[in-house]
Amino acid sequence: MPTSAPPKNRFERRRAETRQAFVRAARQILAETGDTSASIQAIAERADVGFGSFYNHFESKTELFDAAVTDALEEFGQVIDERVEGIDDPAELVAAGFRLTAQMADSHPELLRILHDRGLAHIHSDRGLAPRALRDLEIGIASGRFACGNATTALSAVGGTLLSLVALRLARPELDGDEVASDLAEMVLRMLGVAPDDAHEVTRRPLPGLA
Q1: What residues contact residue 1 under an 8 Å CB cut-off, 6+ apart?
Q2: Is 175 helix (H, G, I), strand (E, B) or coil?
Q3: Which 8-state DSSP code applies to residue 57?
Q4: What is the rounded average pLDDT of the residues 83-96?
Q5: What's the CA gap between 79 and 97, in Å, rounded?
Q6: pLDDT at 92 over 80
Q7: 8 A C-beta contact, residue 177 and residue 103
Q8: How does residue 93 score in pLDDT terms, banded at 50, 70 and 90?
Q9: Which residues neighbour 25 within 8 Å (Cβ) at sequence distance 6 or greater?
């Protein structure tokens, strides 16, 4: 899971561990059922921490579940970052993001379920996938790789298509995930102004970890 600066002393370490236990429990609930009506007592029991400590970390269940979604999306972004390290072409980064997302239906199903259920509200978040995608779009526009004029508007289109891919992967697991992701990524790149032949080639480049 995403990490921040290490706590300075034993008290801070324990406090951070307790908070993360609550977040982890909330993530599990979101991935399993999406039901945020679970009682604080039930969440505390799942987290294996005391009920009384909840309000030392969160003002409400809403704040906890928001933190759980942010935590999951940040982890998702970190996983993608690790896999695309060394890729400089903004178009290839967009394509790789789609293809890796499809792959994560098998490798990180909890993350994909949370992205499916909660991702739309976080398309323009300042944490997780959104700032990474916005950065790549801005670089692509500035370099002339992409022909669109507004990165924020482009992010809405790219993010919405990515969420459609996630929905398709979960609804139709029998489909070839990489083929579906490559096809959608190709459509997105063409929408961003990449020439058809170029978009097709970029989305079929070798990707580490995919057969």
Answers
A1: 20, 23, 24, 71, 75
A2: coil
A3: T
A4: 93
A5: 10
A6: yes
A7: yes
A8: very high
A9: 43, 44, 46, 47
Q: Which two tokens stand for residue 157?
A: 């289109």
CA 148/CA 140 separation, integer angstroms = 9
The predicted pLDDT at position 1 comes to 54
Token code pair at residue 134: 């916005």
Q: How many residues can be counted in the chain?
A: 211
CA–CA distances in Å: residue 42 to residues 22, 37, 91, 194: 11, 10, 45, 50
Q: What would the pLDDT profile of 97-144 be if each residue is shown by its tens digit? A: 999 999 998 899 999 999 999 888 889 988 888 899 999 999 999 999
Question: Quick one: tokens of 76?
Answer: 């998702």
Q: Among candidates 202, 174, 207, which has minimal Cα distance to 189? A: 202
Taking only the tens place, the pLDDT of each residue in 38-48 is: 999 999 999 99
Q: What six digits make up the tokens of 197?
A: 């032949």
Q: What is the mean pLDDT of residues 169-185?
A: 95
Two tokens at 9? 């002393």
- CA atoms of 205 and 196, how far apart (whole Å): 15
For residues 48 and 16, give the distance between their C-alpha atoms in angstroms, rounded to a whole number: 14
